[in-house]
Amino acid sequence: MTRHVDYWRSATAATLVAACSITPLARTDDGLLDVVILGATDRRTLVSELLPRVYRGSHLRHQAVHFARGTAITVEASPALPLELDGEIVGTTPARFSLLPAYLDLLVPGEDTR
């Protein structure tokens, strides 16, 4: 799939900081990267329509948002764009991202048995 995009995000977890649900369908145990791509849109639409939907996780149904899943993604841009991971610039495009299944052990809270 090739798309012109203004913003993209890939994740393996559904919720980010401040309950922001950019990838609401992501699971940590399915072996897939969830990719959310924001296509060309104007600032009014972004602020008034899309941002409020991100907190509800309903933005995936918006026409400017494209969603995909896969075990690997390649990001290319002309000119090259910086890559930010956890707030740090770590390189530029092109870049390939893939998962290593069962590579990282996660501690998750158990069910409350009170």
Provide the helix percentage: 10-25%
How many individual helices?
A: 1
- Topology as H/E string? EEHEEEEE
CATH C-level class of one domain: Mainly Beta
Q: CATH topology of one domain, which one?
A: Tumour Suppressor Smad4
Inertia-based shape: globular
Number of strands: 7
Report mean pLDDT, rounded to a whole number: 78
Strand content: 25-35%
Radius of gyration equals: 16 Å
The largest sheet, given as strand count, sense and whether it forms a barrel, is: 3 strands, antiparallel
Proper CATH architecture of one domain: Sandwich
Q: In what order do the strands lie side by side in the largest sheet?
A: 1-2-3
Helix/strand/pairing class, anyone? alpha+beta
Low-confidence segments, ≥5 residues, pLDDT <50?
none
End-to-end Cα distance: 48 Å
Could you describe the 3D structure shown?
With 114 residues, this protein is of the alpha+beta class. The protein has a domain at 7-73: Tumour Suppressor Smad4 (Sandwich), CATH 2.60.200. It is 12% helix and 30% strand. It has one helix and seven strands. The strands form three sheets. The chain has a three-stranded antiparallel β-sheet, with no helix packed on it. It has a two-stranded antiparallel ribbon with strand order 4-7. A two-stranded antiparallel sheet has the order 5-6. The longest helix has 14 residues, at 43-56. The model has no long low-confidence stretch (mean pLDDT 78).
